[in-house]
Amino acid sequence: MTRMDFHIHSDYSDGTASLEDIVTEALRWRLEAIGIVDHVRGDADWLADRQRQIDELRGEHGDELEIFSGIEVKVRDEEGALNVLPQATEKVDFVIASFHGVPRSVEERMEGGDRDALVDWWHSCTRILLDCGHDAHILGHPDRILVDRALSVGSARMKRLVEQALASRMFLEWNPAAAYPVQPFATALAERGAPNVTYGSDAHSTSELTDALRARTDYEAGIVERGNQAFLSILREDRGDLS
Fold it and tell me: How many C-beta atoms lie closer than 10 Å to residue 235's C-beta?
């Protein structure tokens, strides 16, 4: 059974753990692969330094743990575009697209009494991302922005999204059920045996990473097994490592 986590934040953004601390914790839990992911808004002058440290850690621990570099970027507008410059995406192994915040145009509709504005925007952008990706590889915590507001996309649209996701090259993230017990989109995909669901703890500290690993169930591991393996194969191929 694979033991991977493709969404761990470091102190290069809003995490509290150093890269070395993350790797030490991953080794303690005998993980096979991790993705160190930090928030980027536009470009980020720290990416080169972070990559240098990651390369050093790969040199030290590559026989025990595969370490990949990633960034998390937010969906910024009503067209599903991502708030990042191409130079940043070219410096990392993979990109996670997430819904963090709401475009001002959508906020104005909400303030004007349009109760469906947020759901409609999320649904439209999710369809766009599943179709073209906008240079992203994983859709992070896909519908948490709705769940946090007790909103639902509805069964009919969810069913269509699931069908689209099953045929998409985009991977969808499963978060720790212990921390995020309500995950309608990922759960619907799991029920269909989707091959493109990856695991991401979204941990911002080593204690959060530890908590997620301790609480992980065989059910969760089964959901992400195929997706983790498939995503790992893509990362290896892109890096020229077919081991």
Answer: 19
Q: What is the dihedral of CA 156, 160, 165, 167, to 10 degrees?
A: 150
Give the whole-angstrom CA distance, residue 98 versus residue 157.
19
Three-class secondary structure of residue 119 per DSSP? helix
CA 219 to chain centroid: 19
Burial of 180 (0-12, 13-18, 19+ CB in 10 A): middle
Query: How far apart are the C-alpha atoms of 180 and 62, rounded to whole Å?
Result: 31
The CA distances from residue 123 to 97, 119, 130, 187, 241, in Å, are 14, 6, 11, 17, 36
**Inter-axis angle of helices 104-111 and 117-132, to 10 degrees?**
150
Residue 143 near residue 185 (C-beta atoms within 8 A): yes
The pTM for the full model equals 0.95
Give per-residue pLDDT as tens, 123-166: 999 999 999 988 899 999 999 999 999 999 999 999 999 999 99
| Residue with tokens 């070219």, as numbered in its chain | 90
How far apart, in Å, are the Cα atoms of 133 and each of 36, 96, 130, 155, 174?
20, 10, 6, 24, 18
Q: Which two tokens stand for residue 218?
A: 């065989």
Is 35 in contact with 6 (CB distance < 8 Å)?
yes
Neighbours of 175 (CB within 10 A): 21
- The CATH number, out of the four listed (2.60.120.10, 3.30.460.10, 3.40.50.2300, 3.20.20.140), of the domain defined by the range 4-238: 3.20.20.140
pLDDT at residue 1 tops 80: no
